[in-house]
Amino acid sequence: MSRSRFSRRLLRWYDKHGRPDLPWRLAGNPYHTWISEIMLQQTQVSTVIPYFHRFTKRFPDIIALARADLDTVLHLWTGLGYYARARNLHRAAKIMVEKNNGQLPQDFQALQALPGIGRSTAAAIAALAFDQRQVILDGNVKRVLTRYHALDGWPGERAVENQLWSLADAHTPNKRLADYTQAIMDLGATVCRRVRPYCERCPVRTSCKAFAQGNPQDYPSPAPRRSLPVKAVTMVMIRDQRGRVLLQQRPPAGVWGGLWTFPECNDDDVPAWCRDTLGLSVRLDDRWQPLRHSFTHFHLDITPIDAHVLGASGQAMENPDVIWYNPNKPDERGLPVPVKHLLGKLRETYEPNR
Predict the structure, then answer these.
(1) Where in the chain is the domain with CATH 1.10.340.30?
(2) Could you confirm whether 332 is annotated as catalytic?
(3) Which end of the chain lies in a sparser environment, N or C, as judged by fewer CB atoms within 10 Å?
(4) Positions in the chain whose pLDDT score sits under 50
(5) Helix (H, G, I), strand (E, B), or coil: what is residue 36?
(6) In angstroms, how far is CA 253 from the centroid of its own chain?
(7) Buried b vs exposed e over 39-73: b needs ≥16 C-beta within 10 Å?
(8) pLDDT of res. 350
(9) Dist CA 205 CA 150 (whole Å)
(10) What are phi and psi of 249, to 5 degrees?
(11) Would you state the pLDDT for residue 354?
(12) Are 262 and 342 in contact (CB under 8 A)?
């Protein structure tokens, strides 16, 4: 099917069945487009929508985001995962305030130079926000194109990815760029789904090679199988006499960069580690059942240890990266999901006794 036929059919389908009512599309605001595209990286639309509403209500424009405290930004991101996205949004907002009067640049190269924006994300922003002819290649588009062309090979391989970029460019029209870009993403998300695709609803199925072969589920080829490594950590949940819990801020890099977690002990003698590292004398109350938190590249097995301070708790406050946190009056700071979960269990455990 030619470029014009493919895009015409896709756009006709989009006009009837697409999702032009997504909140970031309704606003017609380049800032909203940028926020949504970052949030949608490896995250489903249904998950993103409530986060998007809360985030843009709190930070209505780039200047507000740039002026915000990073803790507040990470707090509003809690549960969405891939926290580097939030840190990059904050950094990029500051750059745009300093260099572009608080406006999102329209130039593709300038967009791609911002933290957290790669080639496909820059193209999506340029197309959706500024109706530029830019070619996108997110996960949904890769799935549509590998099935439509029955393209063998894992899309993560450079040679296959290069083929997909060429095919994506060949199908991208010269008009209605914002609608086409949203249309092909919508097709992948709602019709050409990863599992059980609705081929009977697809506007281009008559030319789809995988549909003709009767095996669309075989595309795209899966990534090479590998077992994820398992890492283990002991988190010490130290309470003081007022029921507050000690939290430490992690370094800015890493999967939980800048977030607040329980102190992580790598010593068998936990009380000695707390004394030497935190300057606190503690008594261990209980070792809770381990819980597993999975990341993209590894599993993290967390062993929580319930403990309380013996004597004064002020010495730990000499460390600026340490706070006493009141789980009954949570404030606005970024917390990883398992830490938030454990704080909830602590609150449930000790609240009846208060």
Answers:
(1) 3-218
(2) no
(3) C
(4) 353-354
(5) helix
(6) 15
(7) bbbeeebeebeebbeebbeebeebbebbebebbbb
(8) 85
(9) 12
(10) -85, 130
(11) 46
(12) yes
Question: Looking at the chain, how many residues does it have?
Answer: 354
pLDDT digit string, tens, across residues 122-166:
999 999 999 999 999 999 999 999 999 999 999 999 999 999 999
- Backbone torsions φ then ψ of 69, nearest 5 degrees: -75, 140
Q: Which CATH superfamily is domain 3-218 in?
A: Hypothetical protein; domain 2 (1.10.340.30)
CA dihedral for 37, 39, 42, 46, sign (positive or negative):
negative
Q: Cβ neighbours of residue 69 under 8 Å, at least 6 residues apart?
A: none
Question: Taking Cα atoms as reference points, which of 211, 216, 209, 172 lies closest to residue 193?
Answer: 216
Bridge partners, residue 299, by sequence: 230, 294
**Cα atoms in the 13 Å half-sphere on the side-chain side of 301:** 7
Report the C-alpha gap between 37 and 183 in whole angstroms: 15
* Residue 291, SS3 per DSSP: strand
Catalytic residue, chosen from 37, 264, 332, 348, is: 37
**pLDDT computed for residue 351 by the predictor:** 72
Cβ-proximal residues to 282 (8 Å cutoff; 6+ apart), any chain: 236, 238, 270, 271, 274, 275, 307, 308, 309, 310
Q: What is the domain class of 230-353 according to CATH?
A: alpha beta
DSSP string, 154-173: -TTSHHHHHHHHHHHHHH--
Numbered ranges of CATH 3.90.79.10 in the chain: 230-353
